[in-house]
Amino acid sequence: MIDWKDKREFWIMGARIADPSAERMRVGSVCVQRGAITEIVWQKSVDTDLPVLEAERFVLAPGFVDVHAHLREPGYEEKETIETGTAAAAAGGYTAVLCMANTNPAIDDPSVVEYLARRASLVGNCRLYIAGALTKGLGGEIVNEYGLLKHAGVSALSDDGRWVTNSQTMRTALEYAGQHGLPVISHCEDSFLAQSALMNEGYHSTRLGLRGEPAAAEEIAVSRDIMLAALTGAHLHVAHVSTAGSVDLIRRAKKRGVRVTAEATPHHLTLDDSLLESYDTNLKVQPPLRGRKDIDALRAGLLDGTIDCVATDHAPHTEIDKDVEFDEAPPGMIGLETAFAQLHTRLVKTGVVDLLDLVRFLTVRPAEALELPGGCIKKEAPADLVLIDPEEEWTFDRALIRSRSKNTPLVGAAFTGRVQGIFLEGKWRSAIMG
Ligand code: DOR
Ligand code: ZN
Predict the structure, then answer these.
(1) Which of 164, 193, 276, 412 lies in the 20 to 30 Å Cα band around 418?
(2) Strand 260-264 to strand 52-54: parallel, antiparallel, or no bridges (unpaired)?
(3) Pick from 354, 357, 353, 348: which is nearest to 417 by CA?
(4) Residue having the nearest C-alpha atom to atom 7 of ligand 1
(5) pLDDT in tens, 101-124
(6) 236 and 355 share one domain
(7) DSSP secondary structure letters along 283-336
């Protein structure tokens, strides 16, 4: 644990700096003054009178940016709040998160947007970006007043949790969002094919006797939305891509010049549908965990830029919600606190991607995809940073969880690589309790 009392002006010295704009990581030192980065030098140390944080063991990266988290406030505070959700984000190395609109009431009114922004700045754990609902009450029929929502501060629009089945509504939504310069984040899952499905359709769903959802449910939705993005010229962002076919559709759409970006979650990148043999309801997510070839396609898509970024789809549910029969359990798992460690352990340590690439997928790529600030290390920028020990071996104990909900299949998992804490505008927040 790093013992660092908060200071306004200091140097972080000798860290390996994971600057996503660079080809490789280099040892350097960074000066932070009044919340901003004021100096970056490519030396292990510098002469200074300012306090020094010795960071030779660590990697210093831009704070992570999550473009997909369910923070549940207002309305489902028993699952998560802005306070607990942003504390979980900070513990996971995130300095900014975008919260989804499927709250109660939905984020479809400027008053809700203003309330959330105020809560987040009062709590001060990390920056909060807000997705407004695409349709009134997430009902899928009536588009919201995007101008008013934008004015209130939303950064994107989404009915995430549901697909907008009505193509006319989606066309209007994209047109209207495009006029306001807002990206539309689409939860691509054909509601009819996905209805009452519990997992991926395939060998394991047959063995387990659980109703399966075919890859086509997602791919039909991705196809239609790409076509509507092409028709309207609006920016479509495909949430939680889970199938090889979707990766292919997005790759081809990008080649044709359609304005489409996409994300993949840590769980879809690392966990497969064979794990459902445990009947652990924490593995029930929407879209469902898929097979090996889908996972490989997602990884290849991230590496070639088809999938822009990693986003958690942090979806808290209480123990009471989840401790029920498999078909009764709501879909979703929490992910903010394990995203880095899980991906570092499963993708970096196994040689699938290198650490600097993983940092890119968690920082500059999500920020660019959704046109949000942050995600880089540069002079004059706010000092939103994360310190990582890439060698620390640790176990994810339940007692460590900051989120109000504990619905993760990763309790007890052994990880290599641990977020030590973040600097948010230069202010240190340890990720490690004690
Ligand atoms: O697994 C999921 N849970 N997928 C979603 O799209 C919604 C989310 C939730 O809100 O719980
Ligand atoms: Zn979601």
Answers:
(1) 276
(2) unpaired
(3) 348
(4) 161
(5) 999 999 999 999 999 999 999 999
(6) yes
(7) G--SSPP--HHHHHHHHHHHHHTSS-EE---B----HHHHSS-GGGSPP-B--T
CB distance 102 to ligand 1 below 6 Å: yes
- Single-letter code of the amino acid located at 386: V
pTM given for the model: 0.98
What distance in Å separates the CA atoms of residue 69 and residue 129, rounded to the nearest whole number?
A: 10
Tokens, residue 74: 């207002």
Cα separations in angstroms, 295 against 38, 185, 237, 352: 41, 21, 20, 12
| H-state helical runs in 186-214 | 191-194, 203-208
Token pair of 176 as six digits: 């209207």
The structure tokens listed for 17 are: 């700096």
Dihedral (CA of 424, 425, 426, 427) sign? negative
What CATH number does residue 32 fall under? 2.30.40.10
Q: Is 285 near ligand 1, meaning CB less than 6 Å away?
A: yes
**Domain span at 203:** 62-369
Domain count for the chain: 2
Q: What is the rounded CA–CA span in Å between residue 203 and residue 211?
A: 11
What CA–CA distance (Å, rounded) separates 68 from 130?
10
* Residue 13 reports pLDDT greater than 80: yes
Q: What is the mean pLDDT of residues 327-341?
A: 98
**Catalytic one of 308, 313, 384, 389:** 313
- How many residues does this entry show for the chain? 434
* 49 & 142 share domain: no
For the question of residue 272 being annotated catalytic, the response is no
Centroid of ligand 1 to alpha carbon of 133 (angstroms):
15
Per-residue confidence (pLDDT) for residue 433, from 0 to 100: 85
Which residue has tokens 């306090």? 51
Q: What is the average pLDDT across 336-357?
A: 98
* pLDDT (tens digit per residue) in 359-397: 999 999 999 999 999 999 999 999 999 999 999 999 999
- How many whole angstroms from 180 Cα to the centroid of ligand 2? 23
Which of 283, 280, 173, 285 has its CA nearest to residue 235? Answer: 173
pLDDT digit string (tens) for 295-314? 999 999 999 999 999 999 99
Determine the distance from the C-alpha atom of residue 360 to the mean position of all C-alpha atoms in its chain, rounded to a whole number. Answer: 13
Spell out the residues 6+ positions from residue 63 whose beta carbon is closer than 8 angstroms to its own. 93, 94, 95, 96, 126, 363, 374, 384, 385, 386, 422, 423, 424
